[in-house]
Amino acid sequence: MPNKQWITPDGKSYNLYADMLSQPHLMIAGKTGSGKSVVVNALIYHALFNAPQDSKKGAELILIDPKRVELARYKNLPHVLRTATEPNEFPQALQLAMSICDARYRDMARRGLLDYDGGEVYVIIDEFADLMTTNKKTCSALVQRIAQVGRAAHVHIILYTQCPLATIIPTEIKVNFDSVLALKTANVKDSRYIMGEPGCESLPDPRTEHRAQGYYRSSGDFECWELPMIPADDIAARIQWWMDQVKPKGGLFSKVFG
Ligand SMILES: Nc1ncnc2c1ncn2[C@@H]1O[C@H](COP(=O)(O)OP(=O)(O)O)[C@@H](O)[C@H]1O
Ligand SMILES: [Mg+2]
Question: Which of 64, 133, 199, 208 is most enclosed, with most CB atoms within 10 A?
Fold first, then answer.
C-alpha cells in the first residue's frame, strides 16, 4: 500500500479530516496510545472551523464520553447538544440523535427531499467498548439504527475503540461503518479484524516516535496516511474563540447566531 502525504500528486493539499467528516459514519480503532484522541480532537477542530454555527450549515455535536475527561473541554461550546458521561445517560444521548433523524426525515418527506439539506450532526463516542459493557442491548440497537438511517439525515456517528473485537463491535454495527481509520494495533489479529489484513501492528508508535500513521478507507482500499497533530494551544484557542461568541444571559448561555 502506498504511503501518502498531505499533497496529492496533482499538487493540491488533501484534507483527510474534511474527508472523514463528510463520510456517513467513521470507526477509529487502535490500541491505547495509537493516536485516537489526537484524531478526534482534530476532527472536532475541523468541524468547528468548517461549519460555523448557524441554522443552515452548522455542525452540531453529541458527545458520549465514558472516561469523563477526554471530551469534557468541549461541553460548553454552542455546538454541543448533549454531553453524556454516565452509563444511564448514554442511551438518552443516542435517543436524542435518533429523534433528530426522525424529525429530519419528517421534514424531508414534507418537502419531498431524499437527502437532508441542513447542517451536520456528529455523534462522537469515545471508547465504544464502555457502552457495550454497561448498556449493551439498548446502546447497540440505537447505534445500529442511527448508523442505518443517519446517512440521508446527515447524522453521523464517529466512534472509537481500542478493542475492535466482534463481541464489542457486533457485525451488524460494523457493516454500517464503511469509513474506517485503522491505527496501530497490539497484534496482527486486531489488524486483521479492523482492516482485513496485517499492517497496523507495524505502524510507528506515536508515543515514542512522535508521529502517527493510519490506514484509512472511505471507499475502495485502505491507504496509509501520515496523521498530523493539531497543537493543544490551537485547539484551546479555537474553543475560546467560540466561547467568546456566546454570552451569558439570565444565568444561561445564549447563542448570538442566526
Ligand atoms: N499524529 C500524531 N503526531 C504526533 N504525535 C502523536 C500523534 N498522535 C498521537 N501522538 C502522541 O501519542 C500520544 C497518545 O495519543 P492519544 O491520541 O492520546 O492515543 P489514544 O487516544 O489512542 O490512547 C499523544 O499524547 C501524542 O504524544
Ligand atoms: Mg484516548
Answer: 64
